[in-house]
Amino acid sequence: MTSESGRPAGGGAGTEGEAVGWAAVEAAAPEFAALVRERFGRHRHHVLATLRKDGAPRLAGLEADFRFGELWLGMMAGSRKVQDLRRDPRFGLHANPGGGTDLAGGDVRVSGWAVEVRDPDLKARYAAAVQPPEPFDLFRAVLTEVVRTSAEAPFIKLEVWRPGRPLRTMRRTSQDPQVLQGPADE
Q1: Beta strands in 8-122 (DSSP E)
Q2: Any bridge partners for residue 140, and if so which?
């Protein structure tokens, strides 16, 4: 179960840090947010990571939707991913990389908590706009991290945004000392 903020109810793992809706990302880093949103918009289906009951990761296809200033995660009613998110709302969402190997537009992923939409009026508003197959379950994403990885020869460029922090940009090559020695955990 989750609170309205999206944090797991009653505390527990994953409750540290701030989590915000998509509109906060757009307000804090508008150009970055536009790149991320555009990248997700290239394909309809993306890859959602949730946690199974035993703690193992589960990967599943998902249609993600940016609308009304939020990132929405819609899914078949009662699916395994719904059960996972109701038990533990932490998730990762990776944009579909598409065909080929060039990753035009970069490689994009977001992570945070999924808050189930229980308000029938809000769910009806969403359904009227999107017309998903019925019945469906709907979650609003509250984000703890947004990451874009792209190529900027001779570097790999990593852009990381977290609530309350400025956008951080790093450029790396496979010859960087910290890569060769092994990165420190963040």
Answers
A1: 45-51, 57-67, 70-76, 90-94, 107-116
A2: 72, 115
